[in-house]
Specification:
CATH topology: TIM Barrel
Protein name: Uroporphyrinogen decarboxylase
Strand content: 5-15%
Radius of gyration: 20 Å
Strand order of the largest sheet: 7-8-9
InterPro entries: UROD/MetE-like_sf (IPR038071)
Number of helices: 15
Organism: Victivallis lenta
Distance between the termini: 32 Å
CATH architecture: Alpha-Beta Barrel
């Protein structure tokens, strides 16, 4: 089923176009872009020659070939649009990959939603968390982990016979979230009272999650290292360092709590993997100054500028040499219209 689509993509891919686009990304990542807003584009679009199928995510999650076909359709759409996004795919099993190691139950939405599953927190709250901490780092033969690694091997094997796909379609690391996000998914919303009621257990659980992240990511790096020493890729944009962390849950914490409970674990992971980017939905301006002080931070990706004091965000990112990725174009244009310098460090799709 999938071979005609692999061959079609292989024939549409133009190495010169991809190399030119990567050169643009290199300029941006090396701080050599001197324009206002970084919005790369391919030199030419490459329209699809086949009609690509629409595959519901629930169906794709049950069949790695369907999942690969769904991921490759996004590659096809990128080429057809002449977009400036880099070509990438991932084992797209959602946000519960790392939480699944701790025994949470997945929750699949109806096909009509066509969105990734979530999971239900442990039913026994604090007692369940204590048992997890006492048990230590869970093995990687639990939950979604075996499926993720098997699917990655399947993806690599399927692309292997196609030299251009193998070279230019990056397999990027799965969504492991961040320490606080995983903790909230496993513990549930009751976790936020525990920052006051049982901070020692919070720290112990965060340490456990960070250790599990390291076990997972270390294996990922061993088994699926990048096929070249070029920069890494995530969500279609290039970045320095090996990881992208999610700090969505941190928006619910005060700066002092963020500094005590989240930042040390973010820093430890960024240090271990040679740097990386931190993403957050919602508000992050209340802790951006703390996060920006981590030397290994190589970028910020925020999805909702309207929830943030963007002047404060700019002061602690682009003014300090830290790029912003995927910023909505309207926000960047508004900054420039107000005379706000972006230092060539803001990427918009």
């Amino acid at each position: 089923m999938i071979e005609p689509f692999l061959e079609e993509l292989e024939n549409r891919l133009d190495p010169q176009t991809e190399e030119a686009l990567e050169a643009e990304w290199n300029r941006f990542l090396d701080r050599r872009f001197d324009g206002g807003i970084f919005r790369p584009r391919r030199r030419a679009a490459a329209p699809a020659r086949l009609e690509w199928p629409s595959i519901l995510i629930n169906h794709a999650l049950r069949d790695p070939e369907l999942l690969l076909l769904r991921e490759l359709r996004s590659v096809s759409d990128t080429l057809a649009a002449g977009s400036g996004n880099l070509l990438n795919i991932r084992c797209n099993y959602g946000t519960s990959i790392l939480p699944s190691l701790f025994g949470v139950e997945p929750f699949y939405l109806d096909d009509d939603c066509d969105t990734l599953p979530t999971s239900m927190p442990l039913a026994d709250g604090r007692d369940g968390i204590r048992r997890l901490v006492d048990a230590g780092v869970p093995p990687l033969d639990r939950g979604l982990a075996p499926k993720v690694f098997d699917t990655a091997a399947f993806f690599r094997a399927r692309l292997e016979p196609y030299p251009k796909l193998r070279e230019y379609v990056r397999l990027y690391h799965p969504d492991l979230q961040g320490t606080a996000d995983v903790a909230e998914v496993v513990w549930g919303s009751g976790i936020f009272m525990e920052f006051y009621d049982d901070p020692a257990l919070i720290r112990a659980f965060f340490e456990l999650i960070t250790a599990a992240y390291r076990e997972f990511m270390d294996r990922w790096e061993r088994e699926f290292p990048p096929l070249s020493d070029r920069f890494r890729c995530h969500w279609g944009w290039g970045h320095c360092g090996k990881i992208v962390l999610r700090d969505d849950s941190a928006m619910n914490l005060s700066p002092d709590m963020y500094a005590e409970f989240v930042l040390p674990f973010d820093r430890a992971l960024l240090e271990r993997y040679g740097g990386g980017v931190v993403h957050f939905c919602g508000r992050g301006d209340h802790y951006i100054d703390l996060l920006a002080g981590v030397p290994e931070l190589t970028g910020i990706q925020l999805s909702q500028p309207e929830c943030n004091d963007m002047e404060k965000i700019y002061r602690h990112t682009v003014d300090r040499g830290i790029p912003l990725f995927g910023l909505p174009l309207e926000a960047a244009e508004q900054a420039l219209a107000c005379g706000r310098p972006l230092h060539g460090l803001v990427h918009c799709c």
